[in-house]
């Protein structure tokens, strides 16, 4: 098992610039073009300069050491702007030499600045991204890692964002570049790689994470990832998803704190929809944090201590005490104690959605 979790190369031991293709930290202030896009654009500018100088030289072709065709002028422009200067074509008249001094020499300087500037821009951008990754790795604490950005992962992220968790505190791990691009577009930190490898989890900061959402497409992958996460982060909360109920005990034995069975949950909703569709509508409303009603958790107020949760202003569904959840109909939930937290139905208003 440990060999399966081991990476071919220790990513955490690589220099930061080697992780540019692995970790992406979105820039909230600006969207910079990729280095290749920057190079392509500046190469286009360089070609425009060469063609412009070639046109000027061709229009004054009589002032050079030989009769010039446009191809000759293009050749002279390229070797002149690049400072190669073979000397086979030279300006011989005063007007041609004046054009070289007044026009071509500034174009040569601009051409060199363009090429050097491109190199410096690429190096600066790479250094800036490396510094940003290094700073993020040093500062990230108590974040939430979402493993798998498929349908379940995207829904989990949407719920986290709607609940007020900053996008900078969510890290997505996936092997699909397109899925990671969608996550990055939402302002999430992304890590490219398989979460079955401990080194990928390590550079995502799993040892300092508050919670980990395990939502891959395959149940066996979920078990392996959960086992690895629990070994590396004993105190993190692990919420895992499986398709089939027979695999639930495997995830619980691997260290998952909570297991969601996607196929059975969907099946129950489908069954309810055929008998009582209004119940399904209300359930979907409660599960959607963006509008209508939602299930939320809050601490007990001082004036609520000792009271029955059934008599509070909020519709209380359960009481969380010392990490244990007691339903509203259980004897332990007859009265509220100091330090309890209440699960209640919250009305989501337009102001709440706008604030989030």
UniProtKB/TrEMBL annotation:
Membrane-protein topology: Multi-pass membrane protein
Transcription in keyword set: no
GO cellular component: plasma membrane
Superkingdom of this protein's organism: Bacteria
Coarse class of the protein's main subcellular location: membrane
Residue ranges constituting the RCK N-terminal domain according to the UniProt record: 141-261
Compartments reported by the entry: Cell membrane
Keywords carried by this UniProt record: Membrane, Transmembrane, Transmembrane helix
Membrane-spanning segments: 43-59, 101-123
InterPro entries: K_chnl_dom, NAD(P)-bd_dom_sf, RCK_N, Trk_Ktr_HKT_K-transport
GO biological process: potassium ion transport
The UniProt record lists the keyword Repressor: no
PANTHER family membership: POTASSIUM CHANNEL PROTEIN 2-RELATED-RELATED, POTASSIUM CHANNEL PROTEIN YUGO-RELATED
Official protein name in the record: Ion channel protein
Record organism: Corynebacterium frankenforstense DSM 45800
């Amino acid at each position: 098992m440990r060999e399966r979790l081991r990476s071919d190369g220790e990513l955490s031991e690589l220099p930061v610039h080697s992780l540019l293709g692995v970790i992406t930290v979105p820039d909230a202030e600006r969207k910079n073009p990729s280095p290749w896009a920057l190079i392509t654009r500046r190469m286009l500018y360089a070609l425009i300069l060469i063609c412009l100088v070639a046109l000027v030289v061709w229009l004054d072709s009589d002032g050079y050491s030989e009769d010039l065709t446009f191809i000759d002028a293009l050749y002279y422009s390229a070797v002149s702007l690049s400072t190669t200067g073979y000397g086979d074509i030279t300006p011989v008249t005063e007007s041609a030499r004046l054009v070289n001094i007044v026009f071509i020499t500034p174009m040569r300087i601009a051409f060199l600045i363009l090429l050097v500037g491109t190199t410096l821009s690429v190096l600066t951008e790479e250094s800036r991204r490396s510094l940003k990754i290094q700073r993020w790795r040093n500062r990230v604490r108590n974040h939430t890692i979402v493993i798998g950005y498929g349908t379940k992962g995207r829904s989990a992220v949407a719920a986290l964002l709607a609940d007020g968790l900053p996008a900078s505190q969510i890290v997505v791990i996936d092997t699909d570049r397109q899925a990671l691009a969608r996550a990055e577009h939402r302002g999430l930190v992304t890590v490219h790689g398989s979460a079955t490898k401990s080194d990928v989890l390590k550079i995502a900061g799993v040892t300092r994470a508050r919670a980990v959402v395990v939502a891959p497409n395959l149940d066996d992958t979920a078990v392996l990832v959960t086992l690895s996460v629990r070994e590396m982060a004993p105190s993190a909360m692990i919420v895992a998803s499986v398709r089939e109920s027979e695999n639930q005990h495997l995830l619980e034995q691997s260290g998952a704190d909570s297991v969601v069975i996607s196929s059975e949950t969907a099946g129950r909703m489908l069954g309810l929809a055929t008998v009582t569709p209004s119940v399904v509508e209300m359930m979907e409303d409660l599960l959607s944090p963006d509008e209508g009603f939602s299930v939320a958790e809050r601490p007990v107020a001082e004036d609520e201590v000792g009271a029955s949760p059934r008599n509070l202003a909020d519709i209380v569904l359960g009481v969380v005490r010392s990490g244990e959840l007691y339903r509203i109909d259980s004897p332990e939930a007859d009265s509220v104690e100091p330090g309890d937290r209440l699960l209640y139905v919250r009305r989501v208003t337009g102001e709440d959605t706008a604030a989030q």
